[in-house]
Amino acid sequence: MRRALNALYDGAAWLAALAMVGLLGMVLLSIISREVGFHVPGTDAYAGYLMAASGFLALAHTLKKGEHIRVTLLLGKLQGRARAAMELWALFAATALAGLFAVYSVRLVWQSHQFHDISTGNDATPLWIPQLAMAAGTLILAIAFLDELVLALRGQRSTTDTAARSE
């Protein structure tokens, strides 16, 4: 199971990296087309879609690597059981919030598909297509937080590395 979860997080990170490369391609295409004197419609919109995709798809991998910014002002003052309890509370809250975010992101994609919602730009892209990356990213983030919560409940989560990095 651990191998499959790590592959999921790594796969999402690779997709985020590909979206970032696609974003670079869209920006370069827009710049070059303006300099050469022709216009490629929709490059701004697609650059925005790819930027959102790269951000959302990288969330879980960033969490699992301990690179999310954490405010440890209170946590740094706590020791022992109080610190462990606060960590668990934070993981429960984060898991619940990420779960809600995932549910509503998936719901948005479904509604955009049902209502045939399209971009208002000249690209007229069906919005459910770029929204898929947001839904996938938030769903994988919810899985990652649940993973962290289960590890913490089992006593298998190392909090010293992430806490030391963020202070």
Describe the structure concisely for a colleague.
This protein has helices spanning 2-36, 43-57, 59-64, 80-114, 128-154, 160-166.
What low-confidence regions span 5 or more consecutive residues with pLDDT below 50?
160-167
Principal-axis shape: elongated
**Portion in beta strands:** under 5%
Largest sheet: none
- End-to-end CA span: 32 Å
**How confident is the prediction overall: mean pLDDT?**
89
Number of separate helices: 6
- Specify the structural class: mainly alpha
Secondary structure: helix percent: over 70%
The number of domains: 1
**Could you tell me the number of beta strands?**
0
Radius of gyration: 19 Å
Q: How would you portray this structure in words?
A:
The chain has 167 residues and is mainly alpha-helical. The chain has one domain. The chain is 75% helix and 0% strand. It has helices at 2-36, 43-57, 59-64, 80-114, 128-154, 160-166. Helix 1 runs antiparallel to helix 5. It starts with a helix and ends with a helix. 25% of the residues are buried. The model is unreliable at 160-167 (pLDDT under 50).
Give the helices and strands, then pairings.
Blueprint lengths: L1 H35 L6 H15 L1 H6 L15 H35 L13 H27 L5 H7 L1
Helix pairs in contact: 1-2, 1-5, 2-5, 4-5
Task: Sum up the structure in keywords.
167 residues; mainly alpha; 6 helices
